[in-house]
Specification:
single chain; CBS domain Like; 2 domains; six-stranded antiparallel sheet
Length: about 280
């Protein structure tokens, strides 16, 4: 029942929240489309779980984009997540990749970038340096420095499942020492429990003595936002001359989606039709 689902709850008396996510088919769909070195795969899975935990606060039709931008062999890990639970992600790297490299050795330093976009198109972005050797510590640093929200994260990834657990303090009045007590209870969670113990059992084991209000669970799935319509709009924006030059050199215009590996092909007739009537493109 926990597959591709986020379980969340509030601690009203402690003015805090907790969330637990398990991503199975969503994670498998990403792995099926790319072959990642083990260290990159682990990092991508942890960022995927973290994005799902953080996206649970997005309202309406908003979106969250969580990125690690590196300066070393690993140049980018990015996860996109919508309020509707649709997710996609990828990593870019160059060989050689250490089989046991931590975040700092893989990236050579860099930035964490968190961008949220509202349904109305307004964008909000927070950027911090990569402080720490794991996705969890980097995000904890982000919330401490940029949001002033004390936050703890536990992330775990296997070949089958990406899991995450979040404890976060919220603005408002709270019982004395409640945050310290919740942290103490939460840090007893084991990696095996995070991967396998059903969410209700795990939350009961950790917080059975706490006043906890369960919230509606949220489902997630892999979905790529690429489409023929989006691709044709990009080609039109590049202009007829560039398209004709590409046709002359390559014999076709080919666009690959990095997220899902979908290939969009345009021949000479397609390009002529595209610029003659952009509402009726033909895609092979």
């Amino acid at each position: 029942m926990d597959q591709d689902q986020l379980t969340r709850a509030l601690f009203p008396e402690a003015s805090s929240r907790v969330a637990l996510v398990r991503l199975d088919e969503t994670w498998q769909a990403m792995l099926e489309r790319h072959h990642y070195p083990p260290a990159i795969q682990t990092l991508l899975g942890e960022l995927l779980a973290a994005a799902a935990l953080l996206a649970s606060t997005i309202k309406n039709d908003g979106r969250l984009n969580l990125e690690i931008r590196g300066e070393g062999a690993l140049s980018l890990v990015t996860i996109e997540c919508g309020a509707n639970g649709e997710m996609r992600g990828l990593a870019r790297w160059q060989e050689p990749i250490s089989t046991e490299g931590d975040l700092q050795s893989l990236t050579g330093g860099g930035l964490l970038v968190m961008t949220t976009e509202t349904a109305a198109g307004k964008r909000y972005q927070g950027i911090v340096s990569l402080e720490g050797n794991s996705v969890a510590t980097v995000l904890e640093h982000y919330f401490r420095e940029s949001e002033q929200l004390p936050t703890r994260l536990w992330l775990s990834t296997s070949d089958q499942r990406a899991s995450g657990f979040l404890l976060q303090q919220l603005p408002g009045e709270r019982e004395a020492d409640s945050w310290e007590r919740l942290q103490h209870l939460s840090q007893t969670i084991t990696d095996e429990e995070l991967q396998t113990l059903p969410a209700p059992e795990l939350l009961h084991r950790l917080y059975h003595q706490e006043s906890m209000q369960m919230l509606q669970p949220q489902d997630f799935r892999f979905h790529c936002r690429c489409s023929a319509e989006r691709v044709t709009r990009v080609l039109v924006s590049l202009g007829r001359r560039e398209m004709e030059e590409t046709l002359e050199q390559e014999g076709e215009v080919k666009v690959d989606c990095e997220f899902c590996n979908q290939v969009y092909r345009f021949d000479e007739e397609d390009i002529a039709r595209l610029f003659g009537d952009p509402n009726e493109p033909m895609v092979h």
